[in-house]
Amino acid sequence: MAKRQNDHLPISDILKEFVDSNKLQTGLNKVDVRDAWVKMMGKGVNNYTTAINLDRDVLYVSLSSSVLREELSYGKQKIIDMLNESLEKDIIKKLVLR
Question: Which of 65, 54, 74 lies closest to 98 in space, CA to CA?
């Protein structure tokens, strides 16, 4: 019996192929973005965050504080850059605070 050479693939390659073939990347990105927001923005901002939604390349964040929304609006591009850097992917192009 001859042994097959390609029997041993790294698990990361198998998972990536599974994600790609089942079109799961969009859903995983949404979860990753949510986690990154929580981690990056800290407890203070997260106490006022009511919803986080990624639609294509736009991140929609609902905040219960108009004062906080105004403050964060001045640093939108910096927030986008920090989140993309944290995700190690260029997922977010635009941030909408509501």
Answer: 65
